[in-house]
Design a protein that fits this description.
The structure is a single chain. The chain is α/β, with parallel strands linked by helices and 554 residues long. It has four domains: 10-95, no CATH class; 100-164; 192-362, P-loop containing nucleotide triphosphate hydrolases (Rossmann fold, 3-Layer(aba) Sandwich); 373-553, P-loop containing nucleotide triphosphate hydrolases (Rossmann fold), CATH 3.40.50.300. It contains 20 helices and 23 strands. The strands form four sheets. It has a seven-stranded parallel sheet with strand order 12-13-11-14-15-10-16, sandwiched between helices. It has a seven-stranded parallel sheet with strand order 19-20-18-21-22-17-23, sandwiched between helices.
Length: 554
Amino acid sequence: MNINNSPGPIIIQSDNSILLETQHPQFEQARDFLSKFAELVKSPEFIHTYRITPLSLWNAAAIDISMDEILSGLQTYAKYQVPENVITNLEDWFDIYGKLTLYEHKNNLLRLEISENNIFNRLINDDNLEKYWRHTESNQLYIDSSQRGNLKQDLIKAGYPVQDLCGYVAGNQLEIESKQIDLEGEKFDYYPYQKEAIEAFYESGNERGGSGVIVLPCGSGKTIVGIGVIDKIASHTIIITTNNVAAHQWRYELLDKTNFSEDMIGEYTGAKKIIKPITITTYQMMTHRKNTNEDFKHIKIFTDYNWGLIIYDEVHMLPAPVFRVTTNIQSKRRLGLTATLVREDGKEDEVFALIGPKKYDLPWKVLEQQGYISRVYCTEFRIKMPDKLEVEYAYAKKRKQFRLASENSRKIKITEQLISNHKEDSILIIGYYISQLEEVASELDLPIITGKTKEEEREKLYEDFRNKRINTLVVSKVANFAVDLPDANVMIQLSGTFGSRQEEAQRLGRILRPKKKRSHFYTLVSKGTREQDFAINRQMFLVEQGYKYHIEYF
């Protein structure tokens, strides 16, 4: 029972799920508590559902959240008594973290030490794992060093996370120094939370640091954290980004914040293939091939050079071929940067095994309260479809229904009204379907950027927007990632990629840079359609971060 002798806001169920009442006075405190070790599954208006998994607990353990803290919080916020089997499950799962530790040995062997006999016996008798064991001793298993990544990957799938203390190769040395004054003459220093994140990853250079994921909101300076890590490691680095725009943003920040000259930074993309001490590439480049029978020839960039650090920008977007090559480069330091650990393909366990556990996580609302990111108001407009479109929708197949609802023509009128309401603001209008965006741009006489827009024209429009020569810009999903438009404070989302929580995070991030004006995030969906169903899933990301969604009907 709740230790305060009053009913709390959460109900813990015997299947390890948790129901959270949103109208309870303790809702916000309980939500922030649950976010440390549980995953949000769904978030309708009155009851949010969370689940506790082994992986969510291992990530909590990796950032030193204790089991005592978790159990005490459950008792504090519980409406009813916590089921005994849940307590047992949590303790068993949490306790597994740290039981398996991998060390460097000799003769190209690694030593896996297991602290409990029963786990040791399970592993040596597991048919799926026996291929790894070169020989065994009491609670110790020896494997080929070349199997470091594969073993960790298979062990976590079997339910056993590994603490990898084998250390890392140094890589070619790099001379780097952070500037005190940037290129625009502004004083530069890392924010306190950025310093914390950098040190949490680095861990004073010992073998416990050097691999893992830093989770920070869009707009909070994840690129700056990456630069800080490069400064600490001081060795040749490859940075993998989501697209060419992101690559150019990394290049700018490196030149702006460090002593690097132009000729120290290489770009390995479709346009250029230049390897330098700092080399920036894209996931698309790494996975490019002419046909499915051809090898991923560009992926050899990982193994053909003596990198000391690999940075995976937006690690939640990491494609399968890059996962595969990452299993072979476990001796390199690996940093994942992301605003959310949620992956649409459910491969969070592979990020944990191959990139590393969560090293640092700071809630969006904390940074908002401290003034590091903008305060955002989220509104969803549920819009009735025209009668003719309703008939077409009723007879369409499901995938077609989603597109019809997404391209509801009544969204144009709402967009026009929102633009009128925000005449003094900087507005981005974003969507998934190019034909819809082109129609909005044409109807409202607005500039537009899509994947077809030439880079020169694209950069000119971005520059005009930054300098307030235009205040409204229509953009396709090319603006989901790493577009530096710090003054944007209004986002109108016309359509999205089905229920992608990743995309919601990235789009929100476009208007989070700190500013005096409040920011607004508007989502337009067709009422009572498949688009509305998917929008509910997209909202979960915002709810996880503590944002409230206001809903209006048209």
